[in-house]
Amino acid sequence: MSVETITSSEYIKHHLQNLTYGQIDGHWGFAHTAEQAANMGFWAINVDSMFWSLVTGLVFYFVFRFAGKKATTGTPSGFQNFIEMVIEFIDFSVRDSFKHKNKLVAPMALTIFAWIFLMNAMDLIAVDWLPQLAALSVETLGGDPHAAFFKVVPSTDPNITFGMAISIFILIIYYSIKHKGLGGFFAEILFHPFGKWGLPANLLLEGVALISKPISLALRLFGNMYAGEIIFILIAIMYGVGIGFGVFGGLLQIGWALFHILIITLQAFIFMTLTIVYMDMAHDNEH
Amino acid sequence: MNINATLIGQSIAFFIFIYMVKQYVWPPLIAAMEERQKRIESGLLAAERGLSEQAEAEQRANELISQSKDQAAEIIANAAKQASTMVEEAKDVAIQTANKVKAQATAELEQDKVRVRHELQEQVSTLVMRGVNAVLAKEVDVNTHKDMLSKLSQTL
What we know:
The complex is a heterodimer.
Chain A: H1 8-15, E1 20-24, E2 27-30, H2 34-39, E3 45-46, H3 47-70, H4 78-97, H5 105-121, H6 129-140, H7 158-190, H8 199-238, H9 243-283
Antiparallel strand pairs in A: 1-2, 1-3
Helix pairs in contact in A: 1-8, 3-5, 4-5, 5-9, 7-8, 7-9, 8-9
Chain B: H1 6-139, H2 146-155
């Protein structure tokens, strides 16, 4: 099986390929190669991303639900204390940036922060463990281990980051229209900042500003996590070179993982904060 | 890295999670935290009130103590004054009584003196009379010298 027998480039490609389920030549199944996955078109699904996304989401939901059920007004235990610390942090962030009344924003901020944090944190599990486990399981079940693609960090899949960013974009438009009216929303795009005679320029500026919100949200998270993942993969290649490189790679991996803890938290925080700010702008009725 | 229906799946999952968190996670946690915050606030207030009450009570106690001290001093002073007046009075009474007793004694003494003198006078006169009588019996006629004799006895 696998790593020793394939080249570095194959190894990297293998690690960057999602396990995709879709239509191949008219029948449904898993893609065995990157080309097959690409040929499936839009109506296919990245099973690994979706699976880990849901797993981390459910872990987040049940941990917090458990804390919510057990929440007492007395002296909190260590676990409850931790959860309350997170809640307080989110609540503070929302109060700080969001000046309007909307009961959805704080829970949404919590969901975004905790979920993205957990999805990003999958990056800290050594890059080969879960894919090798998957390959092993596929082999035992009689499948082709080389086709057992398995990406464990959902936030390195642009589908996941764009999925969230587009959802937020929909909410931004929904609340904009709700609070400014349909006319107000379009007036903001068409007659601002140059008045009605500068309409084309306004449309260009405001349109780009509007569209850039979800795109920057999604690409920032995706880019950071994808780059981090690639560095982990490159470090992992060193293990195959020799014992000296292996030890050096080990040290590098520890260093990068420690640094990456900062990145995964920071990216989750940025995504959350920008969402709060965008929601605040959507509620603003100033213009 | 293809854009496919995972995007839609993630969007749906995202909305469902937001809804569930909004419905079942956020409210109980934030409610518990706010409730505790209120309790801590009232607890701190009560503690502060207790402290100020204690300080007040201490002050009151101190006032009471100093008041009692003043009163006690006053009482002692009064008692001392009273005692000294009583002693003075007693002294006066004693002196008066002594004077009275002395006066009485003096008066009695005077009376006794007068009485004794009187008795003595009488006895002497009797003795003189007796002597005179004895002398005169021989040389003086009682009858003739009766007037002189009675005059004499009267002077004696």
